[in-house]
Amino acid sequence: MIGATELLSVQTTLPEPAFDLHYLHHPLDVPAGTAELELVLEYDKIVDVVQIYAVLLEPDGTFRGHVQCPGGPGPRRLVIRVGTDGATPGCVPGPIPPGRWTVRLDLDRHKAAAPYRLTVSAAAAGSVVASAAAGSAAASAAARVEPDDGRGAGVVGGPRWYRGELHSHSIHSDGRRPVADLAKAAKEAGLDFLAVTDHFTAAHWQDLDGDDGIVLLHSMELTSHRGHANLHGLTRWVDTYVDRPEHTMVHVADDVHEQGGLVCVNHAFSGDQAWRRFDTPWDRIDLMEIAHLQQGANNDAQIGLWDRLLTAGHRVIGVAGSDCHDPADPGQALGQVVTVVHAEEAGERGIVEALRRGRVRVWRGADMDMHVNGVPMGATAAAPGGRVQVEVDVCADGPVVVFVLRDGLLINVVPAADRPGEWQRITVEDRIATPGYYRAEIHADPGRNDPQFWASSLRNHDSLRAAGNPVWVRPGS
Q1: Minimal CA–CA distance to 341: which of 370, 367, 361, 326?
Q2: Using an 8 Å Cβ cutoff, are 323 and 366 in contact?
Q3: 164-202 burial string, b = 16+ CB within 10 Å, else e?
Q4: Whether the predicted pLDDT of 25 surpasses 60
Q5: Could you give the angle at the alpha carbon of 177 between the alpha carbons of 93 and 336, nearest 5°?
Q6: Are the CB atoms for 382 and 477 separated by under 8 Å?
Q7: 372 near 473, Cβ under 8 Å?
Q8: Average pLDDT, the chain
Q9: Nearest Cα to 244, choosing from 218, 221, 267, 226?
Q10: How many Å apart are CA 91 and CA 37, to the nearest integer?
Q11: Cβ 475 vs Cβ 406: under 8 Å
């Protein structure tokens, strides 16, 4: 910046790794009359060993922006600019209040000591020149914007099934495309709603305005050192930095629910990004990814954890996610795994409330619905005399097999007739003496006309074509 004054200059080495060392903090005093701040962090990235993010916080702790470092190893120069007239992606423009600001270095990967250099400079009013920051002002102002329930007005409303994507990233975090490209790809894939879940930030929210062809959710991804979680249906930024004892998942969940939003645990078995948060209040978790486009066999473990939570009495709704960072990449393209919800109306609130109620299915090539004693997924049915009738409706492009489960255990396997594109109903009778739940999965037919083989046919992430959410059942009238 021309005419800038250096406020902070640090050239040092990361400390040795420690189990509870997740952040480093560098305070700096910002004088009155500052119009723009520029933060520069330089270090050598070593994939899965040394990876640092930079975060900028106002004197009262208000989030002003962050920057990540996607890509391969090598020297990195990460830049944050925030000012009255603009901000770099992932950051929030606006006035620069004087006082003691904080730079938080988020040690996303910290398995070795490593050198780094950090500088922060300030420019006074009248000395700031046009920069990349000015061009992104509209795209970055959104951390202070509340959602408009009318957004997505071009989507046909009313009670029906809506298809969508709940996990994607733009240039405001580690994605490769702007929000507009994600929205365009989602519409081309036939989706009705899209959640852009950028890490840490709500700066992408302003980019959600003005698209009347799809419902766009106000979401972000909590990206802790011991697990990731999407937060949907927000009205303000949520402090997602939970790797500190004074701010935990309890605080995050309470804040999200106060806003009328939902908490979703993501890719729970994904290596260093696996869910290892033992402070998790599972009674405050609303959703869980049970089908992730890029997680392969980890999806089997995720479904196993989901059933474990359900049998423990937690009402967690299973959803899907692509985790798309580039819709032009065939391996991440939207529409390959889809969350389908039955909502009473279009619009963000309609989709969020439908997810909360739980008449939700995961689509991977087949559609389905399920009722137990006439009650839809997500609800609780009575079972007079303990009698249970499970009705699974299925529509697929090829032969499939219906798996019916009670309390996580298989009670029946029924092949569906090979009638591509036609809905058909599978009915299973059961008896129940204690409260429990039923759910169904649709899997590809193994291709052998042998009922004994169906009973032992492959049921895993490769064969899965659809998964429905539970109906809870209580014996008695």
Answers
A1: 361
A2: no
A3: bbbbbbbbbbbbbbbbebbbbbbbebebbbbbbbbbbbb
A4: yes
A5: 130
A6: yes
A7: yes
A8: 91
A9: 226
A10: 11
A11: no
Give strand pairing partners of 451: none
311 vs 445, higher pLDDT: 311
Distance (Å, whole) CA 408 – CA 300:
13
The tens digit of pLDDT for each residue in 182-207 reads 999 999 999 999 999 999 999 999 88
Measured CA to CA, the distance from residue 142 to residue 202 in angstroms comes to 6
Pairing of strands 287-292, 262-265: parallel
Whose CA is closest to 240, among 38, 52, 57, 25?
57
- CA nearest 471: which of 368, 373, 378? 378
Tokens representing 390 are 């499970």
Annotate 220-238 with DSSP letters as a single string. Answer: EEEEETTEEEEEES-SS--
Query: What strand order describes the sheet that includes 366-372?
Result: 375-376, 366-372, 387-396, 424-431
23-30/227-232 β-pairing? unpaired
Q: Which residues contact 462 (CB under 8 A, 6 or more apart)?
A: none
Tell me the one-letter amino acid at 29.
D
Strands 317-321 and 360-363: unpaired
432-463 per-residue burial string, b: 16 or more CB within 10 A, e: under 16? beeebbbbbbbbbbbeeeeeeebeebebebeb
User: Which of 27-41, 235-249, 455-469 comes out lowest in average pLDDT?
Assistant: 455-469
The two structure tokens encoding residue 384: 């007079």
**Tokens of residue 177, six digits:** 């495309």
Is 354 a residue whose pLDDT tops 60? yes
Q: What are phi and psi of 291, to 5 degrees?
A: -140, 105
Separation of alpha carbons 317 and 34, rounded Å:
47
d(CA 273, CA 29): 35
Find all residues with CB under 8 Å of 267, minimum gap 6, and list them.
228, 273, 274, 275, 289, 292, 295, 298, 302, 321, 323
Q: Which amino acid would we find at residue 251?
A: H
3 state SS of 119: strand
The mean-pLDDT minimum among 90-104, 128-142, 285-299, 319-333 falls in: 128-142
Q: Can you name the residues that pair with 122 across neighbouring β-strands?
A: 5, 37
**Which 3-state string (H, E, C) describes 254-283?**
HHHHHCCCEEEECCCCCHHHCCCCCCCCHH
Burial category of 477 from C-beta neighbours within 10 Å (exposed 0-12, middle 13-18, buried 19 and up): exposed
Q: What are phi and psi of 183, to 5 degrees?
A: -65, -40
The CA-to-CA distance between both ends of the chain, in Å, stands at 73
What letter would DSSP give residue 96?
Answer: -
